[in-house]
UniProtKB/TrEMBL annotation, chains A, B:
CDD domains: DHP5_DphB
Matches recorded under InterPro entries: 4pyrrol_Mease, 4pyrrol_Methylase_sf, 4pyrrole_Mease_sub1, 4pyrrole_Mease_sub2, Dphthn_synthase
Protein name: diphthine methyl ester synthase
Protein source organism: Hippocampus comes
Keywords: Methyltransferase, S-adenosyl-L-methionine, Transferase
Pathway(s) annotated for this protein in UniProt: Protein modification; peptidyl-diphthamide biosynthesis
Length: 289, 289
């Protein structure tokens, strides 16, 4: 049996009781280590689970899936994923390979950023399409995510922005030379994301276009969601661009049309300009208390 | 301290280790019992948690929140919610009341339908706005959810349809007479939801409008997600309208534009007409294997 087990978002204790039972009975346990991360490392998980873990890096999962699935018809193998197992396409790929090899599978779900972000106070059913904000390079500065935010906003919907992370990436030079030397990991912060968004606002204004978003657009930054040192901040984009929420992972939500209850929730984590704007939103909504 | 604890989706063992630690140390534990349900009842949870639970019905949470929060400054109180705690607005309301009363709070997240639905094989970041399909009555047959599905579909996005449930509802007659007599619980099935959708298709065709969806629109029905007897079915709307996935809860996903990997995942649970349509989708996508 192949078990795909979600680990949730915070630390070792965020695994479900069902998930822990699975981990403890499996003969091999892989920890997926490139699409996300917990606030604790492999060693802390091994101690908590009472089980040795094999780090499954991108290479292993995408190129050597057969090794992970080896003899999984006869023995139990677990593949652990931060958040929920269906957060990334590579995990669907692993599942399909298992099915084709006649290996039965079972999924143990858990919280992921896609639903836990509701704790920021914005209602999940008022979210539109989720977008990914990627690290820009000198020559590659895509804006497609920005247009999706505008589409959501036009429909009154909030947008969850997943922020880029680079783990075990090679520089172009090392990649071309075939050298397995990896760059230090990088995680996009809410301030970096807000800065990129404001750069697009500026660019579109210079072109004479209505940028749709402004320095005053309300957003919510979330850091280390579900961990004991979780941080949350309601801010304008301008405020967010200089906001330090500490260690990764960060996520950013761009607010759409606000319901009075959402305004009240956002107030819990707002300061300065953001509060002024929330008061204005509230004044515009007659049913607001 | 007020703890809002998500229970996940399947049975008692879907609580997280952190959540179980919280439940065991609290002096009062409430189980929210009107926005969703697990496949096991209160007694099974009490036995698994080793703790007595108080059922919190809609009346209690909305009208007597003060009773739930009573002395929560000095003692630990847990409020258990199926799925993740931020699935329903009433839980935000409870949290805001706690904050106003100076009661600290903590959230223990878990899987909810909003993220676990990814197991149907459709990628979560290709979902648009979530909609609720409500039970129609003789005189009230709203179609607003249908237009949101069309908007999502036009943008190539999938739509998660949350299906109505009626727990401890009074008939209009008993409500008006002030009689606390409750109707038997009702849970919308995927076949009922598909039937309502097809009714709208028919109505719009009769008006001479393009209904946007057809009998052949691909959808995925999910029943008892996360439980050991979970059922999943890829079907056309026509197939789904006569598909029996058994006991509640059910959810329905209307597919948008399909990625080849999504087609492969949907095939795992498809039969007959749905397979033909998936093959056609695949033929139209040159990168499909």
């Amino acid at each position: 049996m192949l078990y795909l087990v979600g680990l949730g978002l915070g630390d070792a204790a965020d695994i479900t009781v069902k998930g822990l039972q699975v981990v403890r009975k499996c003969s091999r346990v892989y920890l997926e280590a490139y699409t996300s991360m917990l606030t604790v490392g492999k060693e802390a998980l091994e101690e908590f689970y009472g089980k040795e873990l094999t780090l499954a890096e991108r290479d292993l999962v995408e190129q050597e899936a057969d090794e992970i699935l080896k003899d999984a018809k006869e023995t139990d193998v677990a593949f652990l994923v931060v958040g929920d197992p269906f957060g990334a396409t590579t995990h669907s790929d692993l599942l399909l390979r298992a099915v084709r090899a006649g290996i039965p599978y079972q999924v143990v779900h858990n919280a992921s950023i896609m639903n836990a972000v509701g704790c920021c106070g914005l209602q999940l059913y008022n979210f539109g399409e989720t977008v990914s904000v990627v690290f820009w390079t000198e020559s590659w500065r895509p804006e497609s995510f920005y247009d999706k935010i505008l589409q959501n906003k036009a429909a009154g919907l909030h947008t969850l922005c997943l922020l880029d992370l680079k783990v075990k990436e090679q520089s172009l030079e090392n990649l071309m030379r075939g050298k397995k030397i990896y760059e230090p990991p990088r995680f996009m912060s809410v301030s970096q994301a807000a800065t990129q968004l404001l750069e697009i606002v500026r660019r579109r204004r210079e072109r004479g276009d209505d940028p749709g978003l402004t320095e005053d657009t309300l957003c919510v930054g979330v850091a280390r969601l579900g961990a004991s040192d979780q941080e949350m901040r309601t801010a304008t984009l301008a405020q967010m661009s200089s906001c330090d929420l500490g260690a990764p992972l960060h996520s950013l939500v761009i607010a759409g049309r606000l319901h009075p209850l959402e305004v009240d929730m956002l107030r819990l984590h707002a300061r300065g300009d953001a509060l002024t704007h929330l008061d204005r939103e509230c004044a515009a909504a007659p049913e607001c208390d």
